[in-house]
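[job 4471] stage=fold_predict status=RUNNING
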Amino acid sequence: MIKVNLLNSNFRLNSLEKNKIKNQIKYYEDSRSVSIEALKIVQKERGWICDEAIFAISKLLGVSVVDIESVATFYNQIFRQPVGKNIIRYCDSIVCFINGYKDIQMLLENILAIKTGETTQDGMFTLLPTCCLGNCDQSPVLMINDDMHFCVTPKLIPNLLDSYK
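[job 4471] inference complete, writing structure tokens
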């Protein structure tokens, strides 16, 4: 449930976010259909979707807060809490399991000193599982931000992490 004291909120969508969202409206017959695009636009600018952003998107699109919140909480790629600068997604499908993702997961948790679902104290990395990254023939697979990494081995992990610092 969203609890926001709008009278104390200084949150505003910036002009870039507003323009991008308004541009999306022309592609859809129903404003509710723009919700996911609006959430993605705001998340790209801010890194995550705060409660105040839900209200601002609702107001801009003329769609209920409940509708926007339901879209935001349905998709696991929409972050409802702050995340790290770099999002590490490891594939935990059966093929990646067979090819050793568990060793990679444990090493990542060890090096980063976090558990899956957490963000490092310096805000550099968030570690998340994902059910499949669609490259089973090159497993185990990691996705860091928008970059895919194939045939990942524990030996590659330290240099891979260094490249994102």
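[job 4471] summary: The mean pLDDT is 93.
[job 4471] exit 0
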